[in-house]
Amino acid sequence: MKTKLSLLILIVSVLVVSLVSCESDGYSLGDQYVSIATVDASENGEANSFTLDGGTTLFVAASGTNYKPSNPRVLINYTILGDNYGGYDHAIKLNYYMQDILTKPTVYVAPDDKEGQDKLGYDKVKITTMFARAGYITIEYGINVGGQDSHFINLARLSEDLKQNGDEPIKLEFRHNKGKDEENHGSGLMFVCFSIDDFVKANEGLKELKFEVSWEEYSGEKKTMELKYALPETEVVPEPRK
Asked: Model's pTM, two decimal places?
């Protein structure tokens, strides 16, 4: 009983502090923001903080959900409670997770590997948004589904080499395998994120990476989009004096 009472007092205290901070920083508890974020820290699977793609850090001071994300990228709905909290840009109330975003690395399958290529699939897709930020290529897409079989989504490299060749973009292909599912209706739009950390490490010294992503729309039209990703400057360590 004492434990429950102590927990209740702690929750009330957090809410009071949040309300005071909210009023002083000019935020309203009625305002809700939606952002794609990277999960920074977790305890028992619960996210304690996030980083937005622009670098803004969010500390979860209060939460309206006990959902535990299974991927490092999420789409969250939150309310800002205050600024400059414990080294974070904002303290927030996490209202709920809008989407636990599928997050995976890019893959390479040799062109002559028919079984591997078949697993990647050749099925069409609808893509509405695509950008490269914060170490990921993030894609918003929709597919037609029937609910009878799982679909597989991948971003395939057309070359095994991770290095960028001069100004030529690194070529990638968005692949969709619907399996034996019937395409009865649209799935609605979803996000998927692909890590580009391997490309960043392999191209140290460059100022920018260029990617060219291709895919086939449901209309049958084959589309491409070029993305640019600024690389962090590498610190030059001076030679020690002799």
From this structure: 0.84
